[in-house]
Amino acid sequence: MDYASARRNMVDGQLRTNRVNDTRVVAAFETLPRERFVPENARGFAYIDEDIPLAPGRWLMEPMVLGRLIQAAEIEEDDKVLIIAAGTGYSAAVVASLARRVVALEEDEGLAERAQEILRDLAIDNVSFVKGQLRAGYPAEAPYNVILVDGAVEEVPDAFGQQLVEGGRLLAVLREPGQVGRARLYRKNGVLSSRVLFDAATPVLEALRKERSFVF
Questions:
Q1: Shortest CA distance to 44 belongs to which of 89, 2, 105, 12?
Q2: What gap in Å lies between CA 141 and CA 27, rounded to an integer?
Q3: DSSP for 5-32, written as a single string
Q4: Rounded to an integer, what distance in angstroms lies between the CA atom of residue 172 and that of residue 181?
Q5: Beta-carbon count within 10 A of 33 CB
Q6: Are strands 182-189 and 191-199 parallel, antiparallel or unpaired?
Q7: Which pLDDT tens digit goes with each residue over 113-132?
Q8: CB 34: neighbour CB atoms within 10 A?
Q9: Of 24, 52, 88, 209, whose CB neighbour count within 10 A is largest?
């Protein structure tokens, strides 16, 4: 398969047509071999406009959704970014070309090991993979200029906002039970405030579903 051609088609047909036009963001998607970040038997589908399964309950986010989230984050060259649910490392690798440092949080040891191997092969050296519960964020390296959740959430844990600098940005797809998913940009100015960016059908991360309460 001609992956370079598929990559160009993804950028032209999925990103640019959906208003992803920041030159730095587009360049990151144009150069990064997305096929390396999916299971070998799914490489032929690496550039389709869908979420691609990586492991039970985990997906590689649809390119358009990820591209628009990253663009909305307005990542600067000196920023430190936390990726929640980094999976095989694709979103972290894209962001690594934009930011000074990326902390990639993952709770699935198999995915994290694979991600670190891919990043070593691609000589991406400003991403640190850390293991821990997604809901807790990663306070040891806080505060962050940007936090990006690589998957949908039913609620945004308080810990995420607490780990942002003042003026920091949080990007997530909020998908409450029974409702359409909506990509949101949160900003911290004392408290978190948010606005809707666009609709997205991103699958919900099991670790970031609302805690169910029982009614007797």
A1: 2
A2: 28
A3: HHHHHHIIIIIGGGT---HHHHHHHHHS
A4: 10
A5: 16
A6: antiparallel
A7: 999 999 999 999 999 999 99
A8: 20
A9: 88
Whole-model pTM? 0.95
Contact status, residue 15 vs residue 30, Cβ threshold 8 Å: no
Quote the distance between the C-alpha of residue 89 and its chain's center.
Answer: 9
For residues 104 and 129, the answer to whether their CB atoms sit within 8 Å is yes
Amino acid code (one letter) for 186: Y
Q: Is 141 helix (H, G, I), strand (E, B) or coil?
A: helix
CA pseudo-torsion sign 114, 130, 63, 12: negative
Residue 91 has φ and ψ, to the nearest 5°, of: -60, -40
Residues 7-27: tens digit of each pLDDT: 999 999 999 999 999 999 999
Tell me the H-state helices in the chain.
3-10, 23-31, 63-73, 90-96, 109-121, 158-162
Q: Which of 118, 18, 115 is nearest to 68 (CA)?
A: 18
CATH class (in words) of the domain with range 3-208: alpha beta
- Name, in order, each residue with C-beta under 8 angstroms of 23's C-beta and a sequence gap of 6 or more: none
